Amino acid sequence: MDFGTVLEAMRPDLKRVEDRLLEETALEYPLVGDILRGLIGAGGKRLRPLLVLLAARAFNYDLDRLVPAAAGIELLHTASLIHDDSIDHAELRRGQPTLNSVLPPEVVIMVGDYMFARSAMLAASTMNPRVLAVFANCLGSICDGQLREIFAARRADVSLDDYQRRIYGKTAALFAGSAEIGAILGDATDKEIDALRRYGGHLGMAFQIVDDVLDLRESTDHIGKPAGHDLRQGTVTLPTMLFLQNRLGDASSLALVEHVLTESAPGDHEVAAAVLAIRRSGAIEQAIELAWQYVEQAREALEAIPEGETRDMLAALAEHAVERHY
After folding, report:
1. Mind spelling out the 3-state secondary structure of 56-113?
2. Could you say which residues form the signal peptide (predicted)?
3. Rounded distance, CA 176 to CA 51, Å?
4. What domain count does the chain have?
């Protein structure tokens, strides 16, 4: 089964989540509401809400319980992106203008906080204390990941363990929480809930590694933000780490990449040259290899849930996390 087949099968249910998201972003402030709806509308494949739905689908699949939770997860993700863009001073997200490109910083932070509040209200509407606990843990992990990124900025000595802990917090924790919440609301057993949480975590790690690869490999038109954005911001991602620590370039290219990473305002030509050096070094291929290892761990976790179409769908979703690289 391929990922396109999964999306087609789940399209009607995801439409219900989409409708709920649009309701939640219908604010009284026209400019803010328009931008939020643009951000929501450009939200791609809705992988996190899809994960909530699929995690429940193998058990007790009750959309009335699942849709608010799935929408809440996506709003939590959107709120984290708003704050992330504010910290990074990003002007584009998913090809759309960010809030901080048109609004004062204090307003952007308040809008992000409001979206966090709305997401929490949706989680609370499930009337399930265990869901609320998972949701709160996700929020804490996202903040931890963001703080780790801030304090590690423009450092060339970030370790693989530091990187993995950071991306688990920023990205994988929400994937893990999405799967766990879906399984809880689907009345899965504790063993199945634990397996799906681990599946989601491994999926999220693979997904973020590929995101880091795409940031270096693709154009602005493809990823909706300038290529090499992480490097310019001083954020060490896996391909850059592998390039520097495994010394995959000559002395001049290693010095250039380290300079761009640690310099507060590198020039466009320096960023472009550094990106090209990493692309040509084999670091991207090594990063993708690690992403596939996480996909394999995700597949292994699925062995604890019943065989059938839903398990096949979850396996296809895990493979998609890396296949979108090609």
Report:
1. HHCCCCCHHHHHHHHHHHHHHHHHHHHHHHHHHCCCEECCEECHHHCCCHHHHHHHHH
2. none
3. 9
4. 1
Name the nearest CA neighbour of 260 among 228, 285, 238, 283.
Answer: 228
- Do you know the residue count of the chain? 326
Q: How confident is the model at residue 244 (pLDDT cuts 50, 70, 90)?
A: very high
pLDDT of residue 225: 60
- β-partners of residue 93 are 96
- Residue-wise pLDDT for 170-185, tens only, equals 999 999 999 999 999 9
Q: How far apart are CA 198 and CA 260, in angstroms?
A: 36
**Side chain identity at residue 202, one-letter code:** H
Q: Which domain holds residue 114?
A: 3-323
d(CA 321, CA 218): 16
Give the HSE-up count for residue 116: Cα atoms under 13 Å, Cβ half-sphere. 16
Q: What is the pLDDT of residue 174?
A: 98
Judged against a pLDDT cut of 90, whether residue 63 lies above it is answered with yes
The percent of residues above 70 in pLDDT, for the chain, comes to: 92
Residue 303, amino acid:
E
Please give the Cα distance from 79 to 85 (Å, whole number).
10
Q: Answer for the pair 182, 56: CB distance below 8 angstroms, yes or no.
A: yes
For residue 89, what is the domain's CATH number? 1.10.600.10
**Exposed/middle/buried for 250, CB within 10 Å: 0-12, 13-18, 19+?**
exposed
Model pLDDT for residues 130-156, shown as the tens digit of each residue: 999 999 999 999 999 999 999 999 999
Distance CA 217, CA 228 (A): 8
Burial letters 113-129, b for 16+ CB under 10 A, else e? ebbbebbbebbeebebe
